[in-house]
Amino acid sequence: MEEKRDNGFKIDDSIDLSHEVCPMTFVLTKMKLEALQQGQLLEVILPAGEPMRSVPISIKEEGHKILKVEKMGGMFKLIIEKV
Q1: How many folded domains does the chain comprise?
Q2: How high is the pLDDT of residue 1?
Q3: Which positions of the chain have pLDDT values less than 50?
Q4: Which helix (H) or strand (E) holds 54?
Q5: pLDDT tens digit string along 57-72?
Q6: 22 a catalytic residue
Q7: By residue range, what is the domain housing residue 57?
Q8: Parallel, antiparallel or unpaired: strands 9-11 and 4-6
């Protein structure tokens, strides 16, 4: 797999949830995180609105770190570190 970088972050995996709705946005994000090793980074693309409100809260409640949030038009990109 080609190494992907985002402003110095080495992205280990990514998931595009731009066409998903809650609660699947969190469920799919959680499944991707479970497949990663501690310290690895996941890039998540989320639609604005409810997914962007609820997924970051749920990710933090699970104990993971959100390293970056970037608005991209009607979407958001999160970079999450698995803890």
Answers
A1: 1
A2: 46
A3: 1-2
A4: helix 50-61
A5: 999 999 999 999 999 9
A6: yes
A7: 4-81
A8: antiparallel
